[in-house]
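Sequence in, structure out.
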Amino acid sequence: MESKIAKAIDMNYSPVAVIWTDEKPEGALQFKEGLRACVVAMLTAAAKGKTAVFDRKTFGCPGGGTGLGFGNQYVYFPGGIEYFLSTGNPEFCQTEMGKNIAKGLPHLEHGERYFKSPETATKFVDSLPIMDIPNEYIVLKPVDQVSSSEEPKTVVFLVKPDQLSALVVLANYGRGVNYNVTAPMGAGCHTFGIFPASEGEKETPKAVIGMFDITSRPKVDKDILSFSVPFKMFEEMENNVEGSFLEQEPWLKVKDRNK
């Protein structure tokens, strides 16, 4: 599956297809069971040409499992996710279990401080479009490696500011209304996983800008954000490339300065 968009905006990375499937691809990258890791690193690997796969035992961390679509994994977070995201849980960290866990999660005691209070963090978690997909695996692979028998749920672009501007304009190009793109607060995996997947269930889905998660930022280049679209919106945008501003001089000048 070749992408007209990727060519038109001269992408540095391949767009990444997110596929729900019951078939595990051979030779795919996969976290070991029990390993704590960030799924954004796998997204970057897929954008560079690799294939990655996750299941309900190999999603890296509770946030990754939740963000990808394997149900609410936050309920298993030691010491409470609402404390980890906000002010921390020093009392839990004084227990034997807490001391051991805090060795690998230093923010567990004092919190990541992304939310003002545990109550605020709880509201955030409750607002997430948490889903439990009906399939065994979630696969990330370059769009140009997607076969005719596969249909992605979403497509993720890792882009620089100029490329992002083109995607935002293209998302609105054929609709005649504003607000066809959203930029929700969430973990990096939320913004390419459950957020665009939930948009795909709507009659008129929106694209999702992401990768604002400070913890995940080191897993991508410093000038990169994500732009994720449900597959039917990806097809809509692909069909709108020809004859659009992407063929006109103003964009070609912007495109040229990024070479």
